[in-house]
Amino acid sequence: MQLDSAPRPAPVRARLRAAACLLLASSIPGARAAAAATTQFDASGLLYGELDRAKVVEPTLRVMRLLDNGQSFSAGLVLDAITGASPSGAMPTGRAMTTTSASGTVTNHAPGEIPTSPFSDFRGALELGWHQPLGGIVATDLVTHYSREKDYQSIGGTAALSLDLMQRLTSVTVGGGYDYDNVFPVNGVPVGLSPVVAGTGGPPDEGPTNASAVTAAAATGGTSAAVKQVPSAVVGVSRILTRRWMVSLNASRIVQRGYLTEPYKIVSVIDPDSGTTVGSITEQRPTTRDRRDLLANSVYHFGTGVFYSSYRYYWDDWGVRSHTIDLKYRRDLAEETFFQPHVRLYAQTAADFFRFGVVQGEPLPTYASSDYRLGPLRSVTLGGTYGFHVPDYPGELTVRAEYILQWGDGHPSDAVGVQRTLDLMPPLHIATVMVGYTRTF
User: Fold this and answer.
1) How many angstroms separate the CA atoms of 15 and 142, rounded?
2) pLDDT at residue 222, rounded to an integer
3) Which of 295, 348, 395, 425 could serve as 250's disulfide partner, Cβ 3.0–4.6 Å?
4) DSSP assignment, residue 284?
C-alpha cells in the first residue's frame, strides 16, 4: 500500500543537500578524521505513529566503503512494517454510517468521525551507489534502487555529474533519474468515478452492503495492474561565501506519467439538501503530473554550532503550491556530544480537482479526489536530535524525537447541510522517534 501518493525523494536531490552540509563540515573539528576512515556503517530504527491511524516501524542499514583514490561504494537496505488505518476519502456525516473502500473493506463509523479503512503492508527497499572522482574537480554519482511491497513495485536509478569551479569555492551539479513503477492493487485497478456500494452512507443496520459491487474492475474493463513512469532532472549550484558560510540553490523537475490514481480512495456522494453521504464513487486523477521545485539552503558554522536553514517552493500542473521552511541548529555540548533542535513549517494549496464530495444529481467531473494529501494543508514540526558517544565503545549514537501537527481547511464555503457543522479536515497528531548508530573504521 502506498502511504503517500507523492514519489519518494529523488536520490540526486538528497545527495545535493548532503553535499552542501559536508562541504562546510570539513572545517568542523572531527570531520577530517571521519573523512580518512575507509568504511562507515549506519544503522537506525524509526517509529512513526499517527493518532488513531497509521503506524510504521522502519529499520535501516547502510554501509559505505571509501577507497584511497576517493572512489566510494555504498549499499542501503530499508524495511517498512506498516499497520493501522488510513482515511478512505469518504466524508464524515452527522450519523453512524458504513463505508466500503475500493478494495472491498467494510467499516462502521461513529457520527462525525473521519471514515478510515484498516490496512497492513510490508515494504523492502535496496539502494546501491557509486561515487567516482574524475581529474580532481569533476565527480560522478550513480545510484540504483529497487523496492517492493504488497501492491507496488519500483525500480530506477539516478546519475549526477558535479564540477568544482573558482578554486573549488563553487560547485555545480546536474543529474537525472528514471523510475519504472508497477501498481497491482488488491482486487485489481478500479475504474475511475464508478459506483462503489449502493446505499453507502446509511446507518450500519440500513441499506445493502454488496461487496461484489465494490469494484467495477472486472465488470467494466478494469485491469489487474498498471504502470507509472517517472523521469526526473535536477540542477544545483553551491557557493562557499566565507570560511564559515555556504549557500546553495537547487532546482528539480519530476514528470509522472501513467497510473497516478490512488486505487483505495473513494469520493462521497452528497445529498444536496441534507449534506449526508448517500453513496460513494472511486476517485480519478489525471495520468500526468509535472512537478517542479526550488530549494535554497544556507549552512553557517558558528564557533560551537552549525545553523542549517532552507526554503523550498513547490508547484505542479495539478494546482498544488507549497512553501516549506526548515530550521536546525546543531550545538556541540561537549566532546562528541551535541543537541540539534528542529523546526519545520509547511503550507500547501489544494489540487484543482480536490473536493470533499460530489453532489448527487449533478454531472460527474472529469477528475475528483478527496485524498486529504491533495487538500489545503498546514503542518508544524517540532523536535530535536541528541548525539553522543558511549565511553569505551566505538561509534556515535543519536536519538531523534519529533512531534508533527497537521491540519487543513475543513470548513469549505460550498458545504451543505450537516457538513456546515463538521470539521472535514480535523487536526492530525503525529509522533516519530528514531534511534541511530554510526561507526567508522
Assistant:
1) 11
2) 65
3) 295
4) B
Residue 229 domain flag:
yes
pLDDT of residue 216: 41
**128-138 core/surface letters (b: 16 or more CB in 10 A; e: else):** ebebeeeeeee
Helix, strand, or coil (residue 94): coil
Q: How far apart are CA 372 and CA 375, in angstroms?
A: 5
User: Cα(first)–Cα(last) distance of the chain, in Å?
Assistant: 38
Residue 5: inside a domain, yes or no?
no
The enclosing domain of 119 has a CATH number of 2.40.160.40
Higher pLDDT, 115 or 198: 115
What gap in Å lies between CA 93 and CA 220, rounded to an integer?
30
Residue 156 in any domain: the answer is yes
Identify the domain containing residue 349 by its residue range: 11-440
Residue 437 cell numbers, joined: 548508530
Handedness of CA 370, 373, 377, 378 (dihedral sign): positive
Query: Cα–Cα distances in Å, from 373 out to 105, 269, 356?
Result: 21, 20, 12
Mean pLDDT lowest for which of 38-52, 57-71, 103-117, 280-294?
A: 103-117
Domain count, the chain: 1
User: For residue 103, what pLDDT is reported?
Assistant: 59
